[in-house]
Amino acid sequence: MTEYLLPLEQMIEQLGSLPGVGRKTAAKYAFHLLELPQEELEQFCTTLLDGKRRIKTCRICNNLCEGEVCSICADPKRVNGQICVVEDVKTLMAMERAGSFRGEYHVLGGALSPIDGIGPDQIDVAGLMDRIKTGPQPVLEVIVATNPTVEGETTALYITRLLKDSEIRVTRLACGIPVGADLEYADEVTLMRALEGRQSLK
Amino acid sequence: MTEYLLPLEQMIEQLGSLPGVGRKTAAKYAFHLLELPQEELEQFCTTLLDGKRRIKTCRICNNLCEGEVCSICADPKRVNGQICVVEDVKTLMAMERAGSFRGEYHVLGGALSPIDGIGPDQIDVAGLMDRIKTGPQPVLEVIVATNPTVEGETTALYITRLLKDSEIRVTRLACGIPVGADLEYADEVTLMRALEGRQSLK
User: Fold this and answer.
1) Contact predicate B126/B108, CB 8 Å
2) Which of A69, A192, B69, B113 would give a disulfide with B118, using CB separation of 3.0 to 4.6 Å?
3) In chain B, which among 140-169 make CB contacts under 8 A with chain A?
């Protein structure tokens, strides 16, 4: 391992804390930033700090926003009785990219994982229940779009159980073969789930 | 392309300016930084700015240093009449990692590239010539360790020409097959150069 000057080492260490960045990549980034003119590096840092300062979470659904409420919650056309529950904002954005969901969201900020000490109090299930009970519009369906992982499934089951005595329909995104993928390379669990969820053609 | 909130877009744009970082990776970094506690993001930025402020270039060889002169130039044991000329500090560090060179360095800060408008005045050839002419110790050999690219070769030729009337030996790193590589996959030019530079075994 190369020993760099201490201030450079510290830069590399900080840059290495970015997700998926190892020491070599961090060093590449550090050298790049070191070669920038002073004002460009200052702009770089100011933009990051400004972003952090300006971006807040929506008080209704926890989506990112600049004001009090996000653009989706502020849009009356998005009120259709459906709430899509996601683990994080990135999933919300992926759903928006897909473009076919026209209801509202609720961002939990994680998924239940007892091993990691993440229980119902660590994610925003309470906020979801609050919206369902006291929201201005009746909720007809909760679409649980947590990840198809152990944690995501656990969270989906937990939410289903909380709503089991209500009239609300609780659904889950379909698991199956990704469009364009080759069946030959699909894993067993996905194939099994795809078979279970098969759709009739006639 | 997903449209993010403006401050987030700006963060992504800045992070996307890091070498080899595309929009998707930049978004991943931005979300990570956004999720950091305020003080950790501040520490991240402070470390980058501090590094930039504290790291200077050696007034003798242009290596990175914290004071006036880098640790190599300040080390009397490194004076052996050899100067290894490199394009950038990263190459210097790679040479130091290899560990067999015991002389001094000179960092040019680039290589000649007329197409990109980089002539002899844009890289520190003048500093090198100055050291050779007026340095405290006589220089016996200049090892030109510029990259085996068109620009690097041009630079090597240029330096050779500048020194052609002096007594100084000018050498170039050997080109050939990288150790551990498979000859089958070596490109033609490398194979040709390896053949030209073949060494006698007996």
Assistant:
1) no
2) B113
3) none
Contacts of B57 in chain A (CB under 8 A): none
Separation of first and last alpha carbons in chain A: 64
Whether B95 and B145 have beta carbons less than 8 Å apart is answered as: yes
**Kind of pairing between the strands at A169-172 and A104-107:** unpaired
Nearest to A18 among B5, B14, B32 (CB): B32
A107, A61 Cβ separation under 8 angstroms = yes
- What amino acid occupies position A184? E
Residue A68, judged by CB atoms within 10 A of its CB (0-12, 13-18, 19+), counts as: exposed
Task: Write down the pTM of the prediction.
Answer: 0.79
Task: Tell me the pLDDT band of A197, cut-offs 50, 70 and 90.
Answer: confident
ipTM above 0.90, yes or no: no
Q: Identify the structural domains of chain A with CATH numbers, from first to last.
A: 6-54 (1.10.8.420), 77-196 (3.40.1360.10)
Give the Cα-Cα-Cα angle B42, B43, B48 (nearest 5 degrees).
Answer: 100
What is the C-alpha to C-alpha distance for residues A146 and A149, in angstroms, rounded to an integer? 8
Low-confidence winner among A105-119, A171-185, B64-78 (lowest mean pLDDT): A171-185
Q: In Å, what is the CA distance from B186 to each residue of B146, B153, B176, B180, B194?
A: 21, 20, 9, 11, 10
Put simply, whether B3 touches A (Cβ < 8 Å) is no
DSSP line for A13-39: HHHTTSTT--HHHHHHHHHHHHHS-HH
A147-180 pLDDT, tens per residue?
999 999 999 999 999 999 999 999 999 888 888 8
Measured CA distances, B89 to A28, A132, B76, B123 (Å)? 12, 60, 20, 13
